[in-house]
Amino acid sequence: MKLYFSPGACSLAAHVALHEAGAAFDSESVDLKAKRTASGADFNAITAEGYVPVLILDNGELLTENVAVLDYLASQYPQLGLEGPLGRTRLLEALAFISSEIHKSFKPFFGGGGDSEKADAGAYVTKRMTYFAERVTSDYLFGDAPSVADFYLLVTMLWAERLGIVIPGALVGVLARLKARPAVLATLKAEGLA
Ligand SMILES: N[C@@H](CCC(=O)N[C@@H](CS)C(=O)NCC(=O)O)C(=O)O
Question: Which domains does the chain show, CATH number per domain?
Fold first, then answer.
């Protein structure tokens, strides 16, 4: 497998998942502005969307979209998913919520929004994160071990922390626990962020 990532971008979730799983994988960073990979390849020729994450499977197939990439990794490494008859459905429910309600709400911060647009977006992110904060009863979103949903939420909490957006209630502890995990520290180091 090979992961194309950009330091600190949403691809960090899949990068953490690969480290957590102890998977054998290659990775290459991408300059998202120039659309060039670290080895000089045209990123737009690798993926028409021109965004990360991109996961190249061992058979050469290419996966995009955080929800699909993270669902795939949880299917390959069940310790990163949720157990039970509704486990996969609950995981997809959380991933879709993080993608569409939280991740996308950061757009004004990354897309040149004005101050009031950013203030509204920050409040919205906090409100949507509160959905999880009110339901967490263990160390992580769904129990004593983190799932790929925790890693995706981690990325958005790191962004929130950097941008001064309030991280609600119980998620502060989840963030601290995630940041202390060896796989998270190793991933941040691999992305040049630690
Ligand atoms: N719909 C995609 C969006 C991924 C995305 O927003 N990637 C950002 C980094 S967090 C990116 O590569 N942006 C560069 C660009 O769109 O040009 C997904 O959910 O995976």
Answer: 2-77+183-190 (3.40.30.10), 83-181 (1.20.1050.10)
With a 6 Å cutoff on the Cβ, whether 7 touches ligand 1 is no
170 alpha carbon – ligand 1 mean position (Å): 27
Section 169-184 average pLDDT: 97
The pLDDT score that the predictor gives to residue 23 is: 98
Q: Which of 52, 54, 92 best tests ligand 1's pocket when mutated (most atoms within 8 Å of CB)?
A: 52
What average pLDDT does range 142-146 have in this prediction?
97
Residues 6+ apart with CB under 8 A from 20: 77, 79, 80, 146, 151, 181, 183
Residue pair 42/35 in contact by the 8 Å Cβ criterion: yes
CB of 52 sitting under 6 A from ligand 1: yes
Give yes or no for residue 111 having a pLDDT over 90. no
Residue with CA closest to ligand 1 atom 3? 65
